[in-house]
Amino acid sequence: MTTRHYIKDYPRPQFVRDAWQSLNGEWDFRYDDDNMGERERWHEELHGDLKIQVPFTYETVASGIGETTFHPYVWYEREVQLPDTLGNKRVLLNFQAVDHIAKVWVNGSYAGGHQGGYAAFTLDITDYLNTGAGAPNRLTVKAEDSQSCTQPRGKQRWVDENFECFYVQTTGIWQSVWLEYVSPSYLKSVKITPDLDNRSVRFEYEAQVAAPNLRLETRISTQEKTFKQVSLHIDRSWQQLDVELTHEANGPWKLQSWSPASPVLYEVEFVLYEGDNMIDQVYSYFGLRKISIEHGKVLLNNTPVYQKLILDQGYWPDSHLTPPSEEALIADIDAILAMGYNGVRKHMKIEDARFLYWCDVKGLLVWSEMAATYEFNDEAVEQFTKEWTEIVRQQYNHPSVITWVPFNESWGIPQVYTNKHQQQFTEGIYHLTKAMDPDRPVIVNDGWEHTISDIITLHDYEESGAALLARYADSGSVLGGSSSFNNWKYAMAKGYEYRGQPVIVSEFGGIAFNTGEGWGYGEQVSSTEAFIERFRSITQAIKDTPYICGYCYTQVTDVQQEVNGLLTADRTPKIPLDEIRKINRQARE
Length: 589
What we know:
By secondary structure, the chain is an alpha+beta fold. The chain has helices at 326-338, 353-362, 378-395, 420-436, 465-471, 475-480, 528-543, 577-586, and strands at residues 20-22, 25-31, 50-54, 73-80, 90-95, 98-99, 101-106, 109-115, 121-124, 137-144, 172-173, 177-182, 186-195, 200-208, 214-221, 226-234, 238-244, 246-247, 251-252, 266-274, 277-286, 291-294, 297-300, 303-304, 307-312, 343-346, 365-369, 401-405, 456-459, 503-509, 548-554. 16% of the residues lie in helices and 30% in strands.
């Protein structure tokens, strides 16, 4: 099952136009280690000495290059053939992700840029194009990266070799590049906020307004038929409309909420008219679902939900952070569901928008987590804040996203336990996130040393279920700050108190087989039986701790030197998936 207007490989399936063109594929490529390209005007003619398969980075086998040495400046170029029938259409150039700074030229003229390796961005390149049937157009991109710990880099290493849980860097274009064609007036974005309790939905429209007589129709439908249609005069760039979800002729519609058990999606069509002429048409969707917190529990649609999550870093052997295909994303989601998990913590990565689409469609809960910096200073604060707000806005409409996680394990805020400045930074990000999205929980500093946080999360790689059960028997000791809960970290930062929030063990397990290569957490096991017994023991201990309302196991797959996945890096199960499923199903609902 898909949404009605699903297009395979469409890079942004939450906001779909029919008129688009993929620019993935072969580009000319060139290293620029001495940063001479701009001075030598490579944007006028690159003379690329390599070929690269976009959107795979040069570090990956899938790119056709496969060199892991760090290069701080790289260039791309290709010719673009535009449709002959553009007329007065504007041409939008979309990048789903370029790490870390992108500069873009069209036919030798600078068209714009973007900073931030995980957020998508769009440039209107119309004014730089050669027009006319068959006219050639040259697109040139320079990507600048660094080994700086002030830029959000997630699990990308900042030295020349992999170490601990840090992996080969990702430099340059690593998600899809594509064009779309729009009229001078068009819809730029729509923020969709369903309200389950009041049976309504709010639309916040952002439009490019280039004409005085614009009317926007919003049509809400099921797979079968439209049941609500509203119209709005568009006379400025931002407008808002609240829509009651009732049937026009027959009173209240029988609404269905979105959940893992029943991931019902309502389709939305936005049609923009100039006078009587349709000038833009966009397809989207939403799920009618509510996330809330009451009495120490996380509620989904006003009912407590026991979260059985698995940590997912989203790496593949030959393509690293870039999914090798849309089918690969679907296969990962299907494997996670087959193992009995109802959600995923997407760790230190902002995942491809197609992944979130399939989580929406299939009913997989998602914690969305920002890629960390590893230093605390003004530059790091500025870069982190700017990109995080872009991410929250871009992922806001996905019903599968139920939790925001801006920080993890004090990365980028290393003295947050006692340092007031770093504590204030976390408070600022918490409140900024809540200003943009008051309805989703925000976890500040996943794992330990929380300041203000809607959920208290604990990371603990204890190997013994009995030891785990004993450790968490006294909630006051664990959450009250009188002792470190995992023998070296505290649940709360100094000056902050536990206030009855839900408690989730959001990292545990990490069991690895003894293969002589790589690492896992604790002693490696030598047999399937030993793996299953340890997995069952620690999972059962968490389940038997009454005040803990969910868990997140580490992790889905092996990643480079880290070999503690339930699947190998090439997605081969180490343990029969139904064995994992049985143990997860025994965990309380």
